[in-house]
Amino acid sequence: MLHIVRALFVGVCAALGTAMGIELYKAPWEGLCIGLVAGVLMAGGAMAFTRRVASAVSTAMIGLLVGCLIAYFVVQVLRLVLPAGDPKVDFYRNFSLTVAIAFLSVLTLLQLKDDFKFVIPLIEFRREGHGGKPILVDTSSIIDGRVADVMDTKIIDVPIVIPRFVLTELQAVADSQDPLKRVRGRRGLDVLNRLRKDRGVRIEEAELPEIEGVDAKLVRLAKNLDARILTTDFNLNKVAQVQGVEVVNLNDVAHALRPDVLPGEKLSVKILRAGENPGQGVAYLDDGTMVVAEECAARIGQPVEVVVTNVRQTSAGRMIFSRPA
After folding, report:
1. CA-CA distance, 183 to 290, in Å (whole number)?
2. Which of 16, 86, 106, 199 is the most exposed place for a label (fewest CB within 10 A)?
3. Helix (H, G, I), strand (E, B) or coil at 284
């Protein structure tokens, strides 16, 4: 359906260019040539593999059409004001005006294309916001599954995009003859369905057939879309960074959020009150973290050195369980 709409769009643009050329120059062959050139250029923009190329081409074509339209009205005004002269002179005058106005129109829209978004086959003028870059999700992070939990926290408020070639690779893993790979692939498909159902993750149809390797395609697509990559793949992380693509590594995120207190460490705390269970005392660290100390209910108001036995992270906060050193 998308290709049909694009073909219709190119046909309309070619017909419009032909009609304007014939009316402007009073010459069917020149108008036909202009229309065909405009249609071919529009086809190149509509069929471009990347949005960045399509955006630039469509912006230029919009500027060309707007410039031709403005030139048409200028020529009509000149015909009313100036007396009729030599047809060749009038033709070259009209042609020069059209080229100059179209050129200025294209330059103007190319300067404004960062402020407005041009979409083919439909043209949408939308002021770009100041939101973050979209995130491309790779196969490893989908199979990992933590991306769905991160999305549930609503901490990510930028578009999440999964390229079609990543989905193809995930399906290949799910159909693998290796039982371990097959289980991992099916887990990834379950996570993907969860993301698409609950978070409206978008599938990007770009295939980039001229590039070999999913990682290389992912890096190229991220550069074309000015996006970041979400992954757990160490090699992809390094390759993307070398090519100037921002990477969000789930392992780095987990490391940054890990507790700064680990089991086996010793803490010096002051017991402030009794806990819920018999024999427990409760203390607090400087950052407000609750420390539950076993066998310390009788030592309220006293400083106690305890050894951390467990750390639990819940939506209500972090709790540290300990016993006397």
Report:
1. 39
2. 86
3. strand
Helix (H, G, I), strand (E, B) or coil at 265: coil
Domain that holds residue 239: 135-256
The answer to whether residue 119 is domain-embedded is: no
Check whether residue 224 and residue 311 sit in a common domain: no
Within a domain: 33: yes
- Candidates 224, 230, 109; CA nearest to 159 is 230
Number of structural domains the chain divides into: 3
Do both 217 and 145 map to the same domain?
yes
Lookup: tokens for 59: 């912006």
d(CA 40, CA 35): 9
C-alpha separations of 219 from 225, 242, 252, 316 in Å: 10, 10, 19, 38
The letter for the amino acid at 50 is T
Question: What is the edge-to-edge ordering of all strands in the sheet holding 281-284?
Answer: 266-270, 303-314, 317-324, 290-293, 281-284, 273-274
CB atoms within 10 A of CB 100: 12
pLDDT digit string (tens) for the chain, length 325 residues: 555 665 666 666 666 666 666 665 555 555 556 655 655 565 555 554 444 555 566 667 777 788 888 888 888 888 888 777 777 777 788 888 888 888 888 788 777 654 444 444 433 333 344 457 888 989 988 988 888 888 888 888 888 888 888 888 988 998 988 888 888 889 888 988 888 776 668 888 777 777 888 888 889 888 888 889 998 888 888 888 888 888 888 888 877 776 677 788 888 889 999 988 888 899 988 767 889 999 888 889 889 999 999 888 765 667 889 999 8
Entry pTM: 0.49
- Per DSSP, 266 falls in state E
How far apart are the C-alpha atoms of 306 and 309, rounded to whole Å? 9
Q: How far apart are CA 222 and CA 172, in angstroms?
A: 22
CA distance to 52, 129, 130, per residue, from 3 (Å): 19, 29, 31
DSSP class of residue 298 equals G
CA quadruple 60, 64, 66, 71: dihedral sign: positive
Give the angle subtended at the CA of 71 by the CAs of 66 and 75, to the nearest 5°: 155
